[in-house]
Specification:
The structure is a homodimer of 118-residue chains. With 118 residues, chain A is mostly helical. In chain A, 59% of the residues lie in helices and 12% in strands. Chain B binds a DNA duplex (30 and 30 nucleotides) through helix 5.
DNA sequence: CAAACGATTGAACAACCGTTCAACTGATAT
DNA sequence: ATATCAGTTGAACGGTTGTTCAATCGTTTG
């Protein structure tokens, strides 16, 4: 009886199942990347920023006004959203205008709303 | 010149834009709910559990074995996934078997993988 | 150039979250 | 009933993370 070095007390309940899953499931590194992407969407402030930018392009000051937050807090979150390629920005004079990077984000938010409305 | 009580230094840059966004964007409460849903997906361990359960139904001990984690850590995360209605469970003797709650989760994970692969 | 303003950045603090450890529950078998 | 095993739960610890505050950058204007 082969014993794994990983399980709870002594041995695995269903060795076949564990081996099958280990071979078939996605790589941990890829899943961590996807988790990192979802983590960016997993914040109320960032979600509100995205929702605002879905209406129209906005500068940082206007986002802060619409959300009732400081420019600094908003800018920090915009940095996170930009790093995740969820939003893009464009400078115009002293202002920086942000908008949704691609419509892939929209489908993601819709999917999330679907899961919640049930 | 009407002044809002919310902006950065003194006044809003584009009042019309702010008013439009405030009226058209989703409610903060709904966005918080969606954010909470995405936050559950925003963890590498939970993502690996989901990926494992996409292969086949598994008991807690086997998930722990497949992931190289303790039963306790896995059970805590399964509780989070269950609360978010992402997985469901079924008791069979001493074991508890977990599986994906609905195929809505699958589309969500695929969407996330798409965004990463680009 | 200097002042003003929109925006960014870094440090610091508090709140949140994942893992560990230990105690406990529920079910099966002796 | 007692023991054993799968699983759950709660407290605690450490790491992460969001907001605040202050300082700074970049651009425009006087």
């Amino acid at each position: 009886m082969a014993r794994g070095e990983f399980c709870c007390t002594e041995n695995v309940i269903h060795e076949g199942a564990v081996a099958q899953v280990r071979a078939a499931m996605h790589e941990a590194a890829a899943l961590d990347t996807v988790a990192g992407f979802f983590r960016v969407l997993g914040d109320g402030t960032r979600m509100r920023i995205i929702s605002a930018l879905l209406v129209r392009e906005l500068c940082v000051c206007d986002i802060a006004a619409a959300l009732g937050m400081t420019k600094s807090a908003v800018s920090h979150q915009l940095g996170t959203l930009r790093a995740a390629r969820l939003v893009k920005c464009r400078r115009e004079g002293k202002s920086v205008f942000y908008s949704i990077a691609d419509d892939h984000v929209i489908k993601m938010l819709e999917g999330g709303l679907e899961h919640v409305h049930e």
